[in-house]
Write a structure and sequence with these properties.
Layout lengths: L12 H9 L4 H13 L4 H5 L8 E4 L3 H4 L9 E4 L1 H11 L4 E5 L2 E5 L2
Antiparallel strand pairs: 1-2, 3-4
Amino acid sequence: MFCIEHSPPKATTQDRQRFNAHYKTAAWQKLRVIQLSKQPLCQACLLNNHINQAEHIDHLFAWSALGEYAFKLNIFQSLCESHHSLKTSLESKGIYRHYSLNGEIDYSL
């Protein structure tokens, strides 16, 4: 929970629409297909010896925090719904989790 002084700015409907429009582009759809072809299973589940199909392509570093250039130039990881939600909640605390072959690695800006 944030106090008013430290709460993130509220996204306007227009901001949210502009943000979501990136995910409807042909370039993103191509990146998504490539990533799911390389890693069709959730990388976080695999670390826990579970096999679960990935549903989300995650930007390791939130491009919205870095800038639009980081939308396509980023490290991507395939995640299931629950791990993507967990990672998104960590990002609100400034933690960027990478589910690597060496285990979970947490980064900050």
